């Protein structure tokens, strides 16, 4: 029973993360809908991309509150290293993808 407060705190953080993430998704979708009026699928994709950090932060907080701070630190470090590796390996692909997005916006 001594882990019950931690479990309740993790559940509250989970609910708040989902609510804040969904609220930010709706706000970004509304803001981007005017910008991408002719291409609503792009507004949806960008709104989803912009809300990913909220969910990652919520997951990190759940691990911290749940007493798994070592796992949380390992995940953050591994994610950073993975991001560097993917960024260096996919530089040309990402440049081409961004340029195609820019062409579709015109």
Describe what this molecule looks like in 3D:
The structure is a single chain. This protein is mainly α. It has four helices and no strands. The longest helix is centred in the first third of the chain and has 32 residues, at 4-35. The N and C termini lie far apart (59 Å). The model has no long low-confidence stretch (mean pLDDT 82).
Strand content bin: under 5%
Please trace the helix and strand order, writing H or E for each element.
HHHH
Query: Count of helices?
Result: 4
Note the main sheet: none
Instruction: Specify the helix fraction band.
Output: over 70%
Residue stretches low in confidence (pLDDT < 50, at least 5 long) are none
Total number of β-strand segments? 0
Which value, in Å, is the CA radius of gyration?
Answer: 18 Å
Outline type: flat
Looking at this protein, list some descriptive labels.
mainly alpha, 106 residues, 89% helix
Structure summary:
With 106 residues, this protein is mainly alpha-helical.
